[in-house]
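Notes to self after the call with IL:
- keep both proteins in one doc
- input above output, always
- annotate only the second one for now

Protein 1:
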Amino acid sequence: MLHIDVMDAHFVPNIAFGHDFIKAMQKRTSLPLDCHFMVTDPELALKRIGSLRPGDGFTVHAELPFPSTGSESGWEPRSYSELSKRVHDMGAFFGIGLSPDTPPEVLDRNLPCIDVVLLMLVYPGFAGSPMVEGIMDKVALTRKWLDSHGREDVEILVDGAVSPEGARDMAAMGASIFVGGTAGIYRKGMALEETIPYFRKMTG
């Protein structure tokens, strides 16, 4: 898959790509597009894209609350049941991303509608940052939590400073999809013809 980060300068302080870029890529390649939306309005994002292809992915973030008078904090996690249904009706998979400080328990509300959990190993919006110390332990923790709630079928995707060696270790912890960025395949002094086969080999 080709992983595409979409940022809106609201949910995260940076801007990257957008719906026009995704539509252009859909015309340019038959490879599935794994679209990661770091935005405050994912429903609008899907509307602007218009359609997804079978095999494409649409991942939003858990850290998008909506007002609620029923909780002490005044906020509770947003329900993505309707959005996920629209994504699934197009033949695409639906994912929810978790920032480094967000525990897997917040997935409970949306557990029936997800296909993938995206674990951010760096803080969203800051590509090229070093991996948060100790964050790889969250892979095993999330795998255990998903399995204990009957969702052994949900895949774990890891994103952010994923080196080939780190990917190998996280594969053993239960991750199955790995974003190859500057630490994985775009490495100084090495061609993609070298880095991609090595990255694939290390992830099994």
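Protein 2 (the one to annotate):
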Amino acid sequence: MLKFISFGSGSSGNCYYLFTATDGLLIDTGIGNRTLRKYFKDYGLSLSSVHNVLITHDHADHVKSVGCLSGDYNLPVYTTREVHQGIGRNYCVQRKINQEHIRYVTKGETFTLGDFKITPFGVPHDSTDNVGYCIECENVTFCLITDAGSITDEMKAFIGKAHYLVIEANHDEEMLKNGPYPQHLKRRILSDNGHLSNTSCGTAIAENMTERLNGVWLCHLSEDNNHPELARKTIETILGSHGIIAGTDIKLEVLKRKIPSGIYELTL
């Protein structure tokens, strides 16, 4: 059975785990190795069950421990050539990825890692490069989209394929506009290469989901410009305006910024 855990979701550190009885795949490594080892132990899991790492982009909250994790556990790290180059330049990644662990992916080209069939796709963000991942395993399609300034047609198509979706709901626009951030940072977040608002996230789900979609997790909420209940209510309202009832038609949950989630079983 395919299972999913979020170990952290937000600017303090992002890390997600997909696993089966025989394979494990980490997506992003924005929390420290010591913390990650503790979390795995708390769940009765071992980091030795992780066989590969996917990286979305090169910002520190997604990659700061990637070199340590890869080196300590002999893990291949998959992402685009541009993201690998960005990781190499990122001063927050104190221990770089060993050359023998570097693996390149190409957006739009599907490849297989153990139990997982993976298709990377482009996501607009002001990083060196950024990819979302559509992951198929045991007939379940899982899609992750984070740090997205806008929704492209390609992203819409992958939302439509998903049985389970992790998608960014970073900020409430009014909270951001009226909040303490300097104007240049507000402009960056609101740009097409910034972060998705609650409203943009809800609209993307409502307009592109199909009857296949069983569950949605909202990720990467801002600590200063959002609130979990506000994000959930905003998106529930948008779904409702499209005749979709959260909790009945689909499950809708908010991932915590600094606290691991439960273990979710991804079934059809």
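Annotation: The chain has a mean pLDDT of 97. The radius of gyration is 17 Å.
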